Fold this sequence. Notes:
Oligomer: single chain
Order of helices and strands: HHHEHEEHHEHEEH
CATH architecture of the domain at 55-185: Roll
CATH class of the domain at 55-185: Alpha Beta
Helix content: 40-55%
Amino acid sequence: xxxxxxxxxxxxxxxxxxxxxxxxxxxxxxxxxxxxxxxxxxxxxxxxxxxxxxxxxxxxxxxxxxxxxxxxxxxxxxxxxxxxxxxxxxxxxxxxxxxxxxxxxxxxxxxxxxxxxxxxxxxxxxxxxxxxxxxxxxxxxxxxxxxxxxxxxxxxxxxxxxxxxxxxxxxxxxxxxxxxxxxxxxxxxxxxxxxxxxxxxxxx
Length: 204
């Protein structure tokens, strides 16, 4: 993940350097920086755009409902039913709620939990409850809607997890590493596109 960000940032810096190289037609660096500033761009080494993209925006970009019965199961549910729910909705994890509670999070169950604790251990998914193989609430990593996407990406990379519940006092959604990578690529691609249009434009 860190290599992806470094590669994208490297490409961006090369494009910016190319623009400065084309500034020999009477425009010095200060004037070029003013133009970049007018368009909301920066010549600093670190990409500033990612710091302004929040988890809430990633959830909105996914479209559809962020929460619902399709995203959750209960700790006393049968593992087989939980896995079928994931497959049916094409998702890799479910937030686990305590029995009888709508918003009290008990943990999370992922495809990895199923593979490691059911398949590899030879256990029956029909006779095993979700609570027996889930990652408990005490070890659950979460983010908030206002968490910036760069921070979310760092958390997921450092903790080596692929799914993170978004909780603002209550469950508001779930983001995956795929959602984060897509947001990073889209944001950076938009920046590079604007820079490319700047190079091709008649600004001299």
